[in-house]
Amino acid sequence: MNPVLDVRDLRVEFPTAAGALGVVDGVSFDVGPGETVALVGESGSGKSVSSLAVLGLLGRGRIAGGSVSFRGEEIAGAGPERLRRLRGAEIAMVFQNPMSALDPLFSVGDQVVEAIRVHRPVGRAQARERAVELLREVGLPDPERRMRSYPHELSGGQQQRVGVAMALACDPELLIADEPTTALDVTVEAQILALMRRLQREHGAALLLITHDMSVVARMADRVVVMYAGQVVERGTVAEVLSAPTHPYTRALIGSVPTVHTGRDELLTVIPGSVPNPADVPDGCRFHPRCPQAVERCRTEVPPVVRTGEGRISRCWLAEDAGRVPAPTGAPGTGAR
Ligand code: SF4
Q1: What is the DSSP string of 107-173?
Q2: What is the set of domains in the chain, with CATH numbers?
Q3: Which residue has a Cα nearest atom 5 of ligand 1?
Q4: Which of 43, 130, 162, 257 has the most C-beta neighbours closer than 10 Å?
């Protein structure tokens, strides 16, 4: 089946006083109809920038190469009018902080009605009816009354439910959720994730989920794309990657998630150091200063993208040393399918 979203060899740059700075370097992934794909990595890995590039929301940044295909249409470099029609109607976004995504000066009802009417030729009464229905669908109690509430009158979880309602207002084919539960406490997080999963299935939308949390990946996604320092370092199905990760960074991310078996006094595994500044990425493997398995070659030679299984890749010398097949050339930056 053709993917809803197909990103290939994407490169994104931001202008700086010292010249253009590449923050996304040859990233490839796709999302099929009704599928959930997670982009995972620490802050600075390039996952959010990659997703914002899809919607042309890069601010001063620009797509410097590669392609972004939505339902077969190239949208990298699409004009402002096409992007405006895409956003909300065909591709919708759920943001990390619902309070900053909602306008504090307008009631919840007005904002959901507006989200519908911007893209659908319906009258105010019909849009209002649909808005009440959506608020009910996302589990807000007494939706008629909530229509008159202002964002500050809602809890964080309720605000994010409104964010999800607005994203689904026009039945988009692709939903992009950028750390949608980071600002919420753990019980509300579970509720919002369950809500998104249910609504995604009911609406049949594809979901691109941006997260730093492997436990969220395990609960939500079908496939996972692990990013580090602007590149994809591992990709595969969630079941395979979580049970048998081939890249040391993926293993470290998995190891840093506390489990129910983690004792009260037990220290969590941490990944030493931090993601490199894009202006100063290390030679060789970008992960080598933090990698517990780094060898001399990792410090000087860029590791190849290696196919580690059906639909799986890993950017690591260990994967190649294990006899895995290098991904085809012409698909740099993990373009191998
Ligand atoms: Fe670690 Fe070397 Fe693999 Fe990089 S290439 S992840 S440094 S083992």
Answers
A1: -HHHHHHHHHHHHS---HHHHHHHHHHHHHHTT-SSHHHHTT--GGGS-HHHHHHHHHHHHHTT--S
A2: 1-90+172-269+306-337 (3.40.50.300), 104-170 (no CATH)
A3: 316
A4: 162
